[in-house]
Amino acid sequence: MLTLTSVEMNAWIAGLLWPLSRILGLIAAAPLFGNASVPVRAKLALGILLAIVIAPLVPAVPAADPTSWAGLLILTKEMIIGLAMGFAMRIVFAAIEYAGEVSSQTMGLGFAMFFDPSTRGRSSAISQFMALVATMAFLAVNGHLILLEALAESFITMPITDTPFSSNTALELVRWGGRIFSAGLQIAMPIIAALLITQVALGILTRAAPQLNIFGIGFPITLGVGFLTLSLVLPYLGAPIVNLFNQGIEVSRSLPRASNPQPAAAGAQPPVRPVVPAPG
């Protein structure tokens, strides 16, 4: 007759519950997986499926009761690690959306605001367009699969432990958050430069012909130059966006190690890091 002790039951529950908390944290915060249009049941089902697949490969977990304070602290820690990994990748999409926001404001489309279902807020039309382009590029280079592979690798590079957090995680995430503005401005720089030249030309034209109604022709000219520049620049945005994806995935890999500087389990070697391929 098969008999199970409470210690064995707790070990089985903890072996599935703690990896599940990290997986659900990433699914809740990562782009594409954490989109508000994805049903909660689908996210939960995906998380449970991934936990069933990954849990047998996870190194030995601490011998702690999942219902105790120590178990709850481990559960919270794993959830925060998953959220941090997903949020690191979310910053990449935020940088691309910020590029669209800056371009829209420069073009004069700041009044064209729409409801964004992914963020449940209002964003410009160009920003939503750039977000859709980034999503298609993310799927085209299998970034969602590489992100899940980085999640599975994190259980080897940073096993589940009961040690407290290190302050390096928050510091790394804050530093990476600065890429929203730097990368966003770099992506939007061609449109900003073209519109700046257009504004200077309109200013010279106004000084040369004061009787010209600059307010009547300035807006359509600026709008047309903005759309023309966007259409010309769009084919060349593949390499910068893919490079940004690579940086986001590398930061997602490094955050679990920063949260706990202890070495990985003995004999465990992380798999080879995949790199998002550049567009052909």
From TrEMBL:
Q: Which domain of life is it from?
A: Bacteria
The GO annotation for biological process reads: bacterial-type flagellum assembly; protein targeting
Its annotated compartments are: Cell membrane; Bacterial flagellum basal body
Residue ranges annotated as transmembrane are 12-32, 44-64, 79-99, 129-148, 180-205, 212-237
Q: Which residues form the signal peptide?
A: none
Annotated coiled-coil segments of the chain: none
Which Pfam families does the protein's record reference? Bac_export_1
Q: What segments bear the compositional bias annotation Pro residues?
A: 271-280
Listed Low complexity bias regions? 261-270
**A single cellular component GO annotation:** plasma membrane
Cite the residue spans of the region called Disordered: 260-280
List the membrane topology term(s).
Multi-pass membrane protein
Arranged from A to Z, the UniProt key words for this protein are: Bacterial flagellum, Cell membrane, Cell projection, Cilium, Flagellum, Membrane, Transmembrane, Transmembrane helix
What is the annotated role of this protein in its UniProt record?
Role in flagellar biosynthesis.
Q: Which family does it belong to?
A: Belongs to the FliR/MopE/SpaR family.
In Swiss-Prot or TrEMBL terms, this protein is called Flagellar biosynthetic protein FliR
